[in-house]
């Protein structure tokens, strides 16, 4: 079957290891099933994998991709939850020390078919297209858990989202606004302000700009470039949720600020299958839909990777096998 996979890893030139070609049909262990992929979405995670972050050379060749929406062998339309936990694990899947994401230990979704545990399937409502559904399992699920499970944002609160055009940041803006929060956004690119406002943002600021007031919660995926601004933007008792660090891991912790203002700093990773089902219901019932920058045939995957790597994407890049 046709697939986009990592054949080599290179921290400096990740795209050099991206290969489009034939891979064997997926093996299906006990308790697993096959999904014929109708749409799959690109994440920054796929670039990290090609850089060798989270993916070891001993596992190559590895089909990339965490996200899929498609059809099971018995004709059910489904989304795939990308977090694979141990078969005996019964708690929150993201807390299983043995968990992995599709494309880390098990072959990923940038292919005609993918094998997944049956318990990872979530029914796809007819109201969502396959392309829209494919955006939910990673970026949108991560945003959902950051806002509602970790920060416990409620209507009327002010939330700062660092970064404008990212897959996670566009989801944070749209979900936060739909839930009744006042959403402020920072961006390196002032040209993105109008698009961010159309998603529901109330104000858009230049990265690092002084805000008119302190916020209740900050959603952080940028990392080193925005970390201090995130800490300094919080009101006493406010919450910083971090799920990524695209610009680097090292930043001053400012311990004095943490204890004196009683700030809460919470890490967050992906989400549970139940949270994905709730996110799907949220989209179905509110009419909210993922922001899609472009839909490409899987044969043009390299163009999508290159655009993401250059920071040119606003929302999600979707591939159709
Ligand atoms: N822990 C998890 O489960 C999880 C899940 C999903 C993603 N992540 C991580 O979260 C990060 C974002 O993922 P994504 O898929 O949303 O990636 P993406 O689509 O590439 O998003 C990049 C975002 O980062 C901002 N940005 C990048 N470099 C910046 C800098 N130097 N200064 C200011 N802003 C900068 C961009 O803002 P502008 O629009 O203003 O350019 C954009 O909003 C990645 O590192 C990813 O690995 C983690």
TrEMBL record:
Annotated InterPro entries: ADH-like_C, ADH-like_N, ER, GroES-like_sf, NAD(P)-bd_dom_sf, Zinc_ADH-like
SMART domains: PKS_ER (SM00829)
Gene3D superfamilies in the record: Medium-chain alcohol dehydrogenases, catalytic domain, NAD(P)-binding Rossmann-like Domain
GO function terms (MF aspect): oxidoreductase activity
Residue ranges of domain Enoyl reductase (ER) in the record: 13-319
Name of a matching Pfam family: ADH_N
PANTHER family hit by this protein: DEHYDROGENASE, PUTATIVE (AFU_ORTHOLOGUE AFUA_2G13270)-RELATED (PTHR45033:SF3), PTHR45033
Protein name: Zn-dependent oxidoreductase
Species annotation: Jiangella ureilytica
């Amino acid at each position: 079957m046709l697939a986009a996979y990592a054949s080599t890893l290179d921290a400096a030139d990740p795209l050099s290891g991206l290969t489009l070609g034939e891979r064997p049909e997926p093996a299906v262990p006990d308790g697993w099933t096959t999904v014929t992929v109708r749409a799959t979405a690109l994440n920054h995670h796929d670039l990290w994998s090609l850089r060798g972050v989270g993916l070891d050379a001993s596992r190559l060749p590895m089909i990339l991709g965490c996200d899929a929406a498609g059809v099971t062998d018995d004709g059910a339309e489904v989304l795939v939850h990308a977090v694979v936990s141990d078969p005996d694990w019964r708690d929150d899947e993201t807390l299983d020390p043995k968990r992995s994401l599709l494309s880390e230990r098990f072959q990923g979704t940038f292919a005609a078919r993918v094998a997944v545990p049956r318990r990872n399937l979530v029914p796809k409502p007819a109201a969502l297209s396959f392309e829209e559904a494919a955006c939910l399992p990673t970026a949108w699920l991560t945003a959902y858990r950051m806002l509602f499970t970790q920060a416990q944002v409620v209507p009327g609160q002010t939330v700062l989202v660092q970064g404008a055009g990212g897959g996670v940041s566009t989801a944070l803006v749209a979900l936060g606004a739909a839930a009744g929060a006042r959403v402020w956004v920072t961006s390196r690119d002032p040209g993105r302000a109008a698009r961010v406002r159309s998603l529901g943002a109330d104000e858009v600021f230049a990265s690092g700009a002084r805000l008119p007031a302190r916020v209740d919660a900050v959603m952080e995926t940028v990392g080193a470039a925005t970390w201090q601004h995130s800490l300094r933007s919080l009101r006493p008792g406010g919450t910083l949720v971090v799920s990524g660090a695209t610009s680097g891991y090292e930043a001053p912790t400012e311990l004095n600020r943490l204890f004196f203002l009683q700030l809460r700093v919470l890490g967050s990773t992906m989400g549970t299958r139940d949270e994905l089902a709730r996110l799907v219901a949220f989209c179905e019932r509110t009419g909210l839909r993922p922001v899609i920058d472009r839909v490409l045939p899987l044969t043009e995957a390299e163009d999508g990777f290159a655009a993401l790597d250059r920071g040119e994407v606003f929302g999600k890049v979707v591939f159709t096998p």
